[in-house]
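Tutorial, part two.
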Amino acid sequence: MGKLLGVLGGMGPLATVDFLHKLIEETPAAGDQDHIPVIAYSVPQIPDRPSAIAGNGESPLPHMLRGIHTLKTTGATAIAIACNTAHYWYYDLVQQGGLPILHIADAACSALAGPSLRQAGLLATEGTVAAGFYQTRLAARGVRCLTSSAEAQRTLVLPAIECVKRNELAQAHTLALAAAQQLLDGGAQSIIMGCTEIPLAIEFQASDIRPRCIDATRALARACAAWWRAA
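Running the prediction step on this input gives:
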């Protein structure tokens, strides 16, 4: 078969389905045979990533490595992780998992348009913000990264993510829009939706903010399609 994409998912389940849907949308295809061969591992019983980064919970690394091992033994030749915060363990996953991993932040930052962009907002878990991989990539492009205040993180961003995990998308939409608007009011020119639950919230229905948002999930799907076409 040649190339086979393994998807490490379950973080969360709906976000994994969203990634797979966008992977199909981003793949130029005239028929079934033109689509990317994919095998997905969606086991939600992976310990909470932000809690582990904060030092308050079990490390998810062994669980994620188990998933990558499962994907590798079924023939996967590269991995996409349908979770931003999980990329905190990116280098351990690559070195111990033994497969190349397409980095979601590389894909999302590459989707930012225009040399005039100087400030981008980041909607993400506290774990992703603390990990800093978006900030370093944006800084390398000369872009300042704006993040939500501690209060907005507590009252808007985290509740929006939790609502998506409970499949309460209408409430998630209201909360995520409010968080995005605060970043735009603070000077952000674009918003990176740096948690795979956030696009599901923002995209629940049309809004004026949506065109100014970069979907990291879709950017990763597009990067996977480019990887496949390079065969």
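Residues 106-216 form a domain with the Rossmann fold fold (CATH 3.40.50.1860). In part three we will examine how such features are distributed along the chain.
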